[in-house]
Structure prediction request, 485 residues.
Amino acid sequence: LPIHVYRKLRKNGFGGPTPAFPLGNIREMEFLCEKNIKDYDSSLESPAISHDIHSTVFPYFSKWQKSHGKVFIYWLGTEPFLYIAEPEFLKKMSSKVQGKRWGKPNVFKHDRKPMFGSGLLMVEGDDWVRHRHVITPAFSPTNLKTMVSLMVEPATKMLERWTALINTGKTEFDVEREITTMAGEIIARASFGLSCENGGEMLGKLRAMQITLFNVNRYVGVPFGQWICRRKNMEAKKLGKEIDQLLLSIISVARNKCGEGSGQRQRCLLGYLMEGERLNERELVDECKTFFFGGHETTALALTWTLLLLAMHPHWQTQLREEITRVIGDGEIHFTNLAALNKMGWVMNEVLRLYSPAPNVQRQAREEIKVDDLVIPKGTNMWVDTVAMHHDPTLWGDDVYEFRPERFKDDHLYGGCKHKTGFLPFGFGGRMCVGRNWTFIEYKVVLTMLLTKFSFSPSPSYHHSPSILLSLRPRYGMPLIVQPL
Ligand code: HEM
Prediction:
């Protein structure tokens, strides 16, 4: 029972904001978010762009941290959550738990089901081990090598679209929307091996579902919360079913198109997953949904935030262009020379630090965990605040809010962070992101193509308001001024 978990947690001495039945701390969370938006909308001038974003995206955690420290208890409805923004605590705790023994909070499962089903992101225990074993080889460097050409085509199409726009005199446009569409096309091609007319339809439905599920407060953890949001739940369920139908037809086409033993099967993620029939049809659908959503939005956001930061720091555009000329020259982009784009790697890490597309990680303890003399009881929900750790001056120093890719020069994995668990854009432990190598490749391929064609500068119509819609995104899109080189 949540109350037993809470009492055991309290015995450890953890504090937290006072909850009220039946919403827990949701009312205060809502209030602080609404206040932020109101203050923003009522201010006459757009505020200067600041990378100190924790109090903007998570105003409640930022406030509670001040009174209760970096580990405390808060409540979503009648479910207590252990909030964690302390890397040492996280390290000690996660070192005790194997990947397969971690759970995902039951309280979120209902909400996330239409989006991810029982795909790798949500599955637990021995099923997780089986799925992970099937999926990991699909992301091996040998397989990813063949994906580069699948990435180049949609990116070329986007570049052509931008050139056409510029030729009509339009030099300012929303790069977030453009890049998200392109990343959707990439994942549709790479996941399903189709130049997928269905890809656009599915992308539209997934986006509609994301907005339905995460744009409004879902009263997660509140008794009868599902009834309060009944209409939205029904809408999400319906969209979920339509997406499943689309995927089932894609899977059946892929089965027929790439018969057993055909070399073509190897060319897409679905082909790898279908090999050996180790996943049944339902599991394939859920994995495809997980790839489709997890695989395009996060990478697209990493690229979008990068363009903003490069627009603000043109000397980094110049440095990256010089590196591209040195490493790639005028030739084609090959998998083998991507690794030599070192500065681009630093830029990517710095962007993932300042604007981590995955702003938090959630867990549920499926067994009791001991951390020194503290006891985290079985059933404890946890909320790891990645944004807080990535913006913590005690971990990164006084220049924590500055864009300084060179911090990754001598320490390319941790950027000089004082604690190695303080930088976790791809999660932690055995459940770390399975698609991170994919991201490194897509990011470098697309950014190389963009920087060799265009230069970027900030647009006066951009309003800096990072917000959470499951991922960390610019609330009002990302208009930038784009000029041909
Ligand atoms: C910038 C890009 C990306 C970021 C920031 C990111 C972030 C993350 C994070 C933080 C997790 C851990 C979630 C958790 O523990 O609950 C995760 C897991 C996962 N990611 Fe990514 N991801 C990215 C790209 C991708 C791509 C390109 C794919 C697939 C094509 C992908 C597929 C997955 C899957 C399937 C998992 C679940 C892994 C497991 O639980 O075993 N991600 N990702």
